[in-house]
Amino acid sequence: MPAAVRKFRRETSEISCCLKYLLFASNVVLWLSALLVLSVGIWAWSEKDMFRNITRLHYIALDPAFVLIILGGVTFLLGFMGSVGALRENTCLLAAYAVFLSVLLIAEIGFFAVAFVLKDKGWIKNQATEGLKAFIRHYREDADQQNLIDWIQEDWLQCCGIDGPKDWDSNNYFNCSSIAIGSREACGVPFSCCRRRPHEQIKNKQCGYDVRKDGYPVDRNIHERGCLRAGEDWLEAHLFCVAIWCVALLVLQMDQILTFKSCRS
Predict the structure, then answer these.
(1) What is the pLDDT along the chain (265 residues), one digit of tens a residue?
(2) Distance from C-alpha of 14 to C-alpha of 16, rounded to nearest angstrom
(3) 203-208 contact pairs (CB < 8 A, 24+)
(4) Domains, the chain, ranges and CATH?
(5) Left if phi > 0, otherwise alpha if psi is -120 to 50, otherwise beta: which for 57?
(6) Cβ neighbours around 210 below 10 Å, total
(7) How many Cα atoms sit within 13 Å of 160 on the Cβ side?
(8) Which InterPro entries has this protein been placed in (predicted)?
């Protein structure tokens, strides 16, 4: 048989039926999940009217709605290429899917490697500090960012500020000088900084008022530890779980690439 005919037959041969539907099913789940995330992100941005007032966004990389849009959009595209490409046996879509997934895998490995190398050089700490500073400065200006930092301080890390409650002085509402303009929150902290009292069902939203004023009682009933140190402590305590999660993510992506290669063999 001529070599050209053999080559043509290899190029037009169907992929394994089992692997085809395995690749299709896994990417449909990914695609639908991404569609949900993307829809939530777009809805959140539309509620804030950000599509017409993008100038209101001060720190776009930290906006939860924007992060959901980017994450959902990239994952949606990836799931679409994988599911439709596998179902239709479209070599162009499958090739694009494999290339896209490989680029993501390489980028993630590079990110983890850089994070490991720079973990003791202060770069990651500086980035986290700048992000928290932006959150604090614009706390009252974006509901999503406000809810996120409240969750970090109250539910996740049980902390307050970057290095401590004094960092809330950089917010116009909580700055002690705002007493002159009538801010009731002046020289205070958000309610998420307060420690929950025993048997307290509903937290008092005014529990952080005046806690940074001179002469306030020593027991302020707020978290005195900063979120930066609390985050470092959390990462050290859960380092093994974080490592397992990262490895599982990389293995899952490698498995998708190997499945694609098996389909084409």
Answers:
(1) 454 444 444 444 455 677 778 778 888 888 899 999 999 988 888 877 666 666 555 566 667 888 888 999 999 998 888 888 888 878 888 888 888 888 888 888 888 787 777 666 677 788 889 889 988 988 988 888 899 999 999 999 999 999 999 999 999 999 999 887 888 999 999 999 999 888 878 888 899 999 998 877 767 889 999 999 999 899 889 988 888 888 887 777 777 776 666 665 5
(2) 7
(3) none
(4) 123-233 (1.10.1450.10)
(5) beta
(6) 17
(7) 23
(8) Tetraspanin/Peripherin, Tetraspanin_animals, Tetraspanin_EC2_sf
Is residue 27 within 8 Å of 86, Cβ to Cβ? yes
Give dist(CA 156, CA 253) in Å, integer. Answer: 28
Give the Cα separation of 26 and 139 in Å (integer): 39
Residue 255 is encoded by which pair of tokens?
């498995």
**Would you state the structure tokens that stand for residue 91, as one six-digit string?**
């070599």
Q: How many Cα atoms sit within 13 Å of 148 on the Cβ side?
A: 17
Q: Compute the distance between CA of residue 165 and CA of residue 222 in angstroms, rounded to an integer.
A: 8
Which letter, b or e, does each residue of 135-163 get, where b requires 16 or more Cβ atoms within 10 Å of its Cβ?
Answer: bbebbeebebbbebbeebbbeebbbbbbe
Nearest to 83 by CA among 16, 27, 22: 27
Q: What is the reported pTM? A: 0.74
For residue 156, give both structure tokens: 């996740």
Cα–Cα distance for residue pair 230/16, rounded to 1 Å: 50
